[in-house]
Design brief:
The complex is a heterodimer of chains A (280) and B (158). Chain A has 280 residues and is α+β, with helices and mostly antiparallel strands. Chain A is built from three helices and twelve strands, in the order ααβαβββββββββββ. An eight-stranded antiparallel beta barrel of chain A has the order 1-3-4-5-6-9-10-11. In chain A, β9 and β10 form a beta hairpin. Chain A is elongated. Helices cover 16% and strands 49% of the residues of chain B. Chain B has an eight-stranded antiparallel beta barrel with strand order 1-2-3-4-5-6-7-8. The N and C termini of chain B lie far apart (57 Å). The N terminus and C terminus of chain B are likely disordered. Classes of the chains: A alpha+beta (280), B alpha+beta (158). Chains A and B meet through β5, β6 and β7 of A and α1, β6 and β7 of B.
């Protein structure tokens, strides 16, 4: 899959560059067009959150057994695909129809699941992905109406799982009164990104950027252990596990391999509305 | 060049440490770092009694980075997020952890772990649950100096 995407990116770039080098273009379009474009982004993305789902399923099984007689409502699976907003910043140049730009995207992808028992007690899980993309775009730039480009670059991501205890009456708490409570984070993780898209300039200062990005997560270490989602706050009881459990049914939880390494690749289709400030 | 751009573009989002913890502390310590405790709301989970709200009596928190010398192990200076609690002449200072979801204070009054219920630049509501007893503390950003701080300045000038 990754190789196919990379080939597609290279093909688009090669086509765009050769098109940009045509004699006709050289004669008529020799000025360099520079642009800066901050923008608001909205899009859809999908990821395989299987590790989260497996942990969540284990909590349902745990709660079923630990609170037998207190029926639970299962809120359903974590969404693999969802819409979300974002911000982007584009800095680029084109000359002789060849486009080159540096693009930055910031996405916040959040979702929540609540397991509520008949008694009013329960647990809420808030999942937060803070994702960044830094991309090089290379392709054909008309300079005025539209650009077509392929992209490659890197991504950097941070993940957070907040696990709240729920009480009757809608009270929720992440304090240390229950060992399952916590704010579990990871170290910064990253990987390579590929994609492509097009940019339209319907008005002088407005541009639309439509693109696909595949943000591939880095591979997990084959030896030793990767850092998982962990809660290292002073408020946490040192006698309890500080890691978000991969399997809640494995008691006690603080077993060496009972943790989640958050490395999630994500496919995006996003559209940005840009304030387009350009020299030409 | 890509790496350079990455550093430039992320510079505006730097946080206190590599794990991104204490992100709320940056909000709390902004400006003079002084917050006034407005009120305490107390109620019991599962009770039919109405919550009791008590207005605070000139109580303040000051949030700041504290630097001190570690004499015990002669390890030099360390700097950490701290909170001072003021009530009249009473002043207590201790370490704090302040994330967007949770605040933990080590020493000042109302020490313990608090769940962040409302998180705004000038308004905060934090909740502590102990057993079935719930206390919600409301704070608002204060343009004033904390009382004890004013006293110290006056003493120095006098």
């Amino acid at each position: 899959m990754t190789k196919k995407i990379l080939l597609l990116v290279l093909a688009v770039s090669a086509f765009a560059s050769s098109y940009g080098q045509s004699e006709k273009e050289k004669k008529t379009d020799t000025k360099i067009n520079l642009w800066v474009s901050p923008g608001y982004t909205y899009g859809y993305s999908s990821a395989n959150l299987g590790k989260l789902q497996s942990s969540f399923d284990s909590y349902i099984r745990y709660a079923d057994e630990a609170y037998a007689g207190d029926a639970i409502t299962n809120p359903g699976n974590w969404n693999s695909g969802q819409t979300h907003p974002g911000l982007s910043f584009h800095l680029g140049a084109s000359a002789r129809s060849v486009l080159f730009s540096v693009t930055h995207f910031r996405f916040q992808v959040d979702q929540s699941r609540t397991v509520l028992r008949e008694s009013g007690y329960g647990r809420r899980f808030d999942w937060k992905e803070n994702r960044r993309e830094w991309l090089f775009d290379v392709g054909y730039g008309s300079g005025r109406f539209f650009d077509v480009f392929g992209s490659f670059g890197i991504n950097g991501n941070r993940y957070k799982m907040v696990s709240y205890q729920l009480y009757p009456g809608g009270v929720y708490s992440v304090n240390q009164e229950y060992p399952f409570n916590g704010v579990f984070r990871n170290l910064y993780t990253g990987g390579l990104s590929f994609g492509g898209g097009l940019k339209l300039r319907p008005y002088k200062y407005i541009a639309l950027d439509l693109r696909y990005i595949y943000a591939k997560a880095g591979k997990e270490a084959k030896t030793g252990r990767d850092p998982g989602l962990s809660d290292n706050a002073d408020s946490r009881d040192p006698m309890t596990s500080n890691e978000f459990p991969a399997d809640y049914t494995r008691q006690p939880l603080n077993q060496l391999d009972n943790y989640i390494v958050p490395s999630f690749s994500r496919h995006y289709v996003v559209m940005s509305v840009l304030l387009n400030i350009q020299s030409k | 060049m890509l790496i350079c751009c990455a550093f430039v573009l992320t510079a505006c989002n730097k946080e206190d440490d590599h794990l991104g913890e204490n992100e709320l502390f940056r909000v709390l310590e902004r400006g003079n770092g002084v917050w006034e405790i407005v009120s305490y709301k107390q109620y019991t989970i599962g009770s039919l009694d109405a919550p009791v709200t008590t207005n605070a009596d000139e109580e303040y928190y000051e949030f700041f980075f504290k630097t001190e010398y570690l004499e015990a192990i002669d390890a030099g200076f360390i700097t950490y997020p701290a909170a001072s609690y003021y009530k009249g002449k009473d002043r207590q200072t201790g370490k704090i952890e302040a994330e967007n979801e949770r605040v933990f204070m080590v020493h000042p009054s109302y020490a313990g772990s608090w769940t962040v219920i409302e998180n705004k630049a000038r308004h905060q509501v934090w909740r502590n649950v102990t057993g079935n007893t719930v206390v919600e503390m409301t704070l608002k950003k204060c343009g004033c100096d904390a009382p004890q701080k004013t006293d110290i300045i006056e003493e120095n000038e006098g």
